[in-house]
Amino acid sequence: MLKIDKSHYEALRCHGEETYPYECCGVLLGTMNGEQRIVTSTARCGNTRDDSPHNRYHIDPRELVRIQREGRERGEDIVGFYHSHPDHPARWSPTDLAEAHWFSCSYVITSVAKGKAEVTNSFELSGSDEADKKFVDEKIEIGELESKPQGRAS
Amino acid sequence: MAKIQIPTPLRQYTNKRESIEIKASTVGDALSGLLAKHPDLRRHLYTEDGKLRAFVNVYLNDEDIRYLQKEATTIKDSDNISIVPSIAGGARQ
User: Fold this and answer.
1) Which one of B10, B47, B52, B73 is CB 3.0 to 4.6 Å from B68, fit for a cystine?
2) Residues of B in contact with A25 (CB under 8 A)
3) Has A18 been annotated as catalytic?
4) Quick one: pLDDT at residue A148?
5) Residue A150 pLDDT > 80, yes or no?
6) CATH classification of A2-143 is 3.40.140.10, yes or no?
7) Residue at B70 is within a domain
8) Closest residue in A to B60 (Cα–Cα)
């Protein structure tokens, strides 16, 4: 299950509206508590897929290294990622699965139709290696968590 | 000793440790030392023919080792090595 503060949940949905008709992407930071991933901050990332940004995303690993380091300094780990599907359902695609490598992390997808965020779903990357990995639907619990300052724009 | 930062999905193979300190003179030596301590990591980092998996990024501080001297890149005791699986995807099939 993914637990996320309402302000962070709305922030990642707004990000998808801002970048429409292109895909947005970002990182979820927080803590892992058994099967729960608790989000305490988010970090917006740039989509480096200039060749096809309306249906592809990629986060610069250098940006991830920085986000991971800054999170570590605050006592946060990377617990998941988010991106948007402009004019496409909030379901994972074969490409999303093929390109997913962070096991036991959450992959949040928001459908953005004509510029407006609609459905947001989350999937846990389950399995033990590339051969048996799969996405499993997971519940998003939106609450009023005591959270750290909101993610940084980049 | 150089410090290797372990990403969250791989910590199950390092007894949940976030970082591992290794005495080594190159990135390749450091990764070999890491695998000697935690052999279950190998299949997640390397292909069967011993090459780093394409989706595994290795950074020395803020630099991708692909643009340095790859695994032969020399390191200092104060260096941080980050293992960062790639993040990508998208709606198109």
Assistant:
1) B73
2) 87
3) no
4) 52
5) no
6) yes
7) yes
8) A65
Q: Which two tokens stand for residue A31?
A: 């803590």
For residue range B47-73, list pLDDT tens digits in order: 999 999 999 999 999 999 999 999 999
How many domains are contained in chain B? Answer: 1
B91 domain-assigned? no
Long-range contacts of A47-54 (CB under 8 A, 24+ apart): A47/A19, A47/A22, A47/A23, A49/A23, A49/B88, A49/B90, A52/B90, A52/B92, A53/A22, A53/A23, A54/A21, A54/A22, A54/A23, A54/A86
Domains in chain A: boundaries: 2-143
Place of tokens 């989350």: A122
Interface of A with B (CB under 8 A): 23, 25, 27, 32, 49, 52, 55-59, 61-62, 64-66, 68-69, 72, 77-79, 81, 83, 85-86, 88, 92-96, 98-105, 107, 125, 129
Give the angle subtended at the CA of A23 by the CAs of A22 and A29, to the nearest 5°: 145
- Which of A45, A101, A109, A128 should one mutate to test binding to chain B, selecting the residue with the greatest count of B CBs within 10 A? A101
Q: Do B89 and A93 touch (CB under 8 A)?
A: yes
Q: What is the residue-averaged pLDDT of chain A? A: 94
Domain presence at residue B56: yes
Q: Which residues contact B17 (CB under 8 A, 6 or more apart)?
A: B6, B11
- Answer whether residue B93 is part of any domain: no
